Automatic annotation (TrEMBL), chain A:
This is Checkpoint protein. Component of the toroidal 9-1-1 (RAD9-RAD1-HUS1) complex, composed of RAD9A, RAD1 and HUS1. The 9-1-1 complex associates with LIG1, POLB, FEN1, RAD17, HDAC1, RPA1 and RPA2. The 9-1-1 complex associates with the RAD17-RFC complex. HUS1 interacts with POLB, HDAC1, FEN1, PCNA and RAD9B. HUS1 does not interact with RAD17. Interacts with DNAJC7. Keywords: Cytoplasm, DNA damage, Nucleus. SUPFAM superfamilies: DNA clamp. InterPro entries: DNA_clamp_sf, HUS1, HUS1/Mec3. Gene3D superfamilies: 3.70.10.10.
TrEMBL record, chain B:
Belongs to the rad1 family. It comes from Pangasianodon hypophthalmus. Coiled coil: none annotated. This is Cell cycle checkpoint protein RAD1. The keyword DNA repair applies. InterPro entries: Cell_cycle_checkpoint_Rad1, DNA_clamp_sf, Rad1_Rec1_Rad17.
Amino acid sequence: MKFRAKINDVGCLNHFTRVVNTITKLTKTCVVRLTVDNIFFVLSGKVANGGVSMWCELLQVNFFDEYQLEGVSEDANEICLEVNPENLSRALKTAQNAKSVKIKLTKKHYPCLTLAAELPSLSSISRVVTHDIPVDVIPRRLWHDFKEPSMPDFDVSIYLPPLKTMKSVVDRMKNLSNYLVVEANLSGEMNLKIETDLVSVTTHFKDLGNPPWGASQSQSQSRDVEAMAHARVDIRKLQQFLMGQQVNPTKSMCNIVDKRIIHLILLQEDVSLQYFIPAVA
Amino acid sequence: MPLSTQPQSGNDEYVLVASLDNVRNLSNILKAISFKDHAIFNATQNGLKVTVEESKCLQANAFIQAEIFQEFTLKEDVVGFQVNLTVLLDCLTIFGGSTVPGVSTALRMCYNGYGYPLTLFLEEGGVVTVCKINTQEPEEPLDFDFCSTNVTNKVILQSDSLKEAFSELDMTSEILQLTMSPSHPYFRLSTFGNSGNAHYDYPKDSDMMELFQCTKTQTNRYKMSLLKPSTKALALSCKVSVRTDTRGFLSLQYLVRNDDGQICFVEYYCSPDEEVDEE
């Protein structure tokens, strides 16, 4: 097993830092899956984290100037590591103005991701800050937990309103209730609703548009365009997703499987983030 | 009047309709009195009066005159109800209360009468939020019987000067002692805290003093915990009038200028903590 990678470009470094910071806001621990072409940050839906799962995908060539990977074996040329993303984001913080950042998998007393940042210096002697971030190497027999989640057979898919507007609405609703109902239809309308003993609040978004998914999603083809699909979710999970956003997505959308799950997708040219929040009764 | 028992949501059903182009003109002034959940609303042809009380010793009133609203329609002489102020403020600021010029949230507030919820329609950038806040039986607000003929001392100050004083007050002191007098020290705030006593004096000819009408030396103590909520109003205001009456009751009236330059008033009444021995 071998992994080493290097970033020379400040823009790429900042971009990578933003992605890691976003992941940090969403989860305490996650799995980093390294393959020849991609880096994935994965959280699989366990009961302990409220059934939320996440899938973030980066194309390595868009971030790294050097990238070498030798997986566990030739037929499984990849590495799976469990990390605390906060450690990674703290390490990257000190590397903000670095001339270059090297990341490699090392074995000290325990396996580590070693991040070495070469900082600018006035003299000829270079300044290097090194962070050893402890990781757990995940054995191959457990990898099946970290496969890309299949796109659920959703009832409605809709583009999200500006995330900033959505965030302020969800923030206020969180003060009032623990659960929120997301509902949307195929005419570009989405509602966020809460209801408690004291108050009921509904925010109506319209003209959002529905993404064209092609004929594969046959279920939504025959659907009444006015009919709402809805899911009641833990409002904190949705707030977490909206709070963490440091990537400026070019496209953001939401798929709803009626009474089952909401699937949020953010797309930027070289990063995609998917977030799944299960519905509660 | 339609005979149907199910009231329609048409305009004629409402006993109160009030609209604002900028919701901040209401939400800001309500923030000045939001120290307790229960707020008593009282609407008359003059406008809206919102009252919040604490421990029967403190009362805060916010007045929003009918002219502040773009529409203010009242079907009855007086309409009263009680709602949870914290919930109302969360609803009014649902779009984040943007301070960006040109971006504002419009509000239409409707009330159907006794037993009905208070309905808010908020709109910003084409997004509409509808809130239905349950109302409660309005309680009778306390009458502090603070009458201008019984006022012994009165000063009007620029709020900035009092803000400075309040931010420097020793909060370990349980009480704030207020001395107003036609002679020295004129206007004095005193605290008695863990690290000693402090006095904050304003000369009567200070630039900050707009009006000074003290007829009799009066020293009264007020609970710091009761006065603390009033700093919210102070922060928003540009002028404040401080008055005490013969019984030592304190009246603080704040003049608040809203985004559109209109003027609203917030007033706090506070009862004195104890009698001070005259020496």
